[in-house]
Every structure is written in C-alpha cells, then in structure tokens.
Specification:
Layout: H1 3-11, E1 28-33, H2 37-52, E2 57-62, H3 67-74, E3 80-84, H4 92-95, E4 97-102, E5 105-111, E6 117-121, E7 127-133, H5 134-139, H6 153-156, E8 165-168, H7 179-185, E9 190-193, H8 198-210, E10 216-221, H9 225-228, E11 231-233, E12 270-273, H10 284-292, H11 297-308, H12 313-323, H13 325-328
Parallel strand pairs: 1-2, 1-3, 8-9, 8-10
Antiparallel strand pairs: 3-12, 4-5, 6-12, 7-10, 7-11
Helix pairs in contact: 2-11, 2-12, 11-12
Length: 342
C-alpha cells in the first residue's frame, strides 16, 4: 500500500476536532482512531487526558487498521495510534524494537528496525476465539469444541454458504485474522464471511441470536456483546507461532498445529507512535503518560455497554473520567509544570 494514496483516501473521511485549550509548550499531534468501538474508547480516554490534563492539541483521523497505518506512522504522516493488538499487527515484529511491558512484566521483546515506537500498553488484556450461542451448545451436549464443528456444519449453513457451514468472521481484512486459512488448515468445511465492519458483523449475529438461530462467529474480549448475550467459545488450540507465516516467506504455513490454525495468543494491546515525534522534548509528558496508562478490562467493558445502550462515546468517556480521577491521575507524568491546567 502506498503511503500517499492511503493518506489521501482516509483524510477525505477523517474526523478532526480542536482541543478545548492549548499551552505554548505543548505540541499539536495527529492521532489515528481505531476502527472498532473498544479501540475508540481507549483512544478517547488517552486523547482526553492528553488534552485536558497535559495541554496538548490532538487532531483525530479515522484510519483503517493494518500495515498501511503502521507505514503512515513510520513516515511521520500520523503521530500515534491506539490499541494495536499484537496478534493482529503483522507489522509490529518488523517495525518495533524494545520490550512490551504489561503490569510490570516483559511479555515479549521486539527486534525490528525501530521505525515505529512502542509507547506502552493500553492496560486491557485481550482474548479472541470463535463462539456459538449457549442455547445451541445446550441443545447439543455432544459438542465439545472446534474439532466437532464438521458434525454440525449443516446447522451453520446458509443459502450463501451452500452445504458448508458459515463463520461470521473477522470483519476487516486489515486485522489479519486469516479465518479462511485457519478453517482450511483445520479441515473444517466452513466458509469465512467477512462483512466489512464490526457493526455489520455484530448486527448479523445479534439478529440470529434474537431469532434463536445457530451461528458461529469470531469475537474478542472485552466486548459488550458478552454482556447482553450468552456465548460459548469453541476453544481453538493454544497459540503456537509459525516463523515462516510472514509476507517475506510468501505466507508459508507450518501445519495444523501452528498459527494461523491455532487460536490467538493472549493479547496485551499497545499504543504506538512515530519515534521522531516522541523524541521531542515537548512530547516527553505524552510519552511518560503512555508508559503509565493502564485501562482495565472492567472499565472498558462498562463503557462499551453504555455506548451500546445509546450513550455518545465522548460523553461516556467524559463520565468515566469524572468518576475515576483516582485511577487516571496515576498515569500522569511525575511533573506536569507548564502543561497541566490544574
């Protein structure tokens, strides 16, 4: 993907806003907003603190996840982005250099070229799997997990999938879920249906749930969908890395015991940015903030439910921020002289 074409395309659909105040010592930054609701919430939490407490001005741009976003950050066209999940970010191993630390522990170490800077983890812990409705699992007590899916493929078949079962798959190609490759490697006679957006995939699944129909879907935690529907994971095999499954190796697989045939690793989502941007003295307060940010699964999930119930996302985040000052104050830089509005 060429950077120039990517930037032109997405700037046309960008959503920009101006910070409510600024200080002479703070820089204006451009942030890429995630293309799923949980990521939007995490980014709004970060942006609101950077603006309201540290005096930065942040412009936001809607930019689809994927390698193109990483390239735009490396090129300096975008300053930072929020909540990248390592299992989905195939550019991370090439572009990051350093430790990914969560809860004070090093979870993984990157040895890429350093063209993108790992700013810190968001705080949430992510889990992904394929799921079926609990009412269907209860009606089929012999179903024990993904290995049994072929026995029940007719239950999941649709007019479009024919005699194959259907998976409501990962909605966006740039998330690098490799659903069809996984199904094929596991010998599952299913078709992955990529619906284009999180909203479309969830609407499809919710409609089938409301009608009491069986379905198989990709989903991740934390997510509001689990708060309003009872689902059962199919328990994909624990993640095992395939070193040859990369673009440089023409996506050579390692068989059914390795990624992408396995499930996803436990994820420690991160914020990431342009190294030159965060090397500037005026951005050290932002860098320190990102290194301390620790949004919990419970807090994000609570905000997800409120957005699902009709709350405007920025208002929901503002309410959380007003009610949880003792939480986010711990993320502020040690010294904010010249930046803090307090």
């Amino acid at each position: 993907m060429r950077i120039s074409k990517t930037i032109i395309t997405f700037i046309l659909s960008s959503i920009l806003f101006t910070a409510t105040f600024s200080k002479a010592s703070a820089e204006k930054l451009l942030a890429a907003i995630a293309d799923w609701t949980g990521g939007e919430i995490s980014c709004q939490v970060a942006v609101s603190i950077l603006e309201d407490e540290l005096g930065y001005e942040i412009d936001r741009i809607v930019f689809a996840s994927g390698t193109g976003l990483w390239e735009a950050i490396a090129a300096g066209d975008i300053d930072f982005a929020c909540e990248s999940w390592p299992s989905y970010a195939e550019a991370d191993e090439v572009m990051l250099n350093g430790d990914l630390i969560h809860g004070g522990e090093v979870k993984m170490t990157y040895s890429g070229d350093g063209s993108v800077k790992l700013l810190g983890t968001v705080g949430i812990t992510g889990m992904s799997d394929y799921y079926v409705p609990k009412y269907w699992a209860d009606a089929n007590p012999d179903f024990s997990g993904y290995a049994d899916l072929n026995k029940y493929k007719s239950d999941f078949a649709t007019m479009e999938s024919g005699d194959k079962g259907r998976l409501i798959g990962c909605p966006v190609a740039g998330w690098n879920c490799h659903d069809q490759k996984r199904l094929d490697l596991l010998g599952l006679d299913f078709v992955a249906d990529e619906l284009g957006t999180e909203t479309a995939a969830l609407a499809e699944a919710q409609g089938m749930y409301d009608r009491g129909e069986p379905f198989l879907m990709y989903l991740w935690e934390p997510h509001w969908f689990f708060g309003v529907n009872e689902l059962v994971g199919v328990k994909l095999a624990p993640n095992k890395t395939c070193d040859t499954f990369t673009e440089a190796n023409n996506w050579e697989t390692c068989g059914a015991d390795y990624w992408p045939a396995t499930g996803w690793a436990v994820d420690y989502p991160m914020n990431y940015g342009n190294p030159d941007t965060f090397a500037k003295p005026e951005n050290q307060a932002a860098l320190e903030f990102f290194g301390k940010m620790a949004l919990s699964n419970a807090d994000q999930a609570a905000m997800l439910v409120k957005v699902r119930e009709g709350g405007e996302l920025n208002d929901v985040v503002a309410e959380w921020k007003a009610n949880n000052k003792s939480t986010w104050e711990k993320w502020l830089p040690t010294s904010v002289e010249g930046l803090s509005g307090s």
